[in-house]
Amino acid sequence: MMEQDEALQLAVAFLAQSQRDDEPPLAIDAERVRESNGFLIVPYNSVQYLASRDVRQQLLDCWPILVDLERGDVRFGTLDERHLWKNLSS
């Protein structure tokens, strides 16, 4: 079983690798990282939004990064998995 710190490092690297040139700078929303059903749920958003939490700066459709704590697989969440992060309390 992978430790949360190690899983979070994988998510940070995955986000950096996935970042496109036409996107605003992105960062992990560390305050909202949670574990659910064997996954580390790692939300992210624009650096600008995370600095202010101003909803006008928030990016839409930021599916969180999921890290499988058993296998270490890292990927973006899917619509079918939305229940993993939408029902978590903030």
From TrEMBL:
Immunity protein domain boundaries: 5-75
Domain of life, per lineage: Bacteria
Protein name: Immunity protein 35 domain-containing protein
Origin species: Streptomyces nodosus
Organism placement in taxonomy: Bacteria, Bacillati, Actinomycetota, Actinomycetes, Kitasatosporales
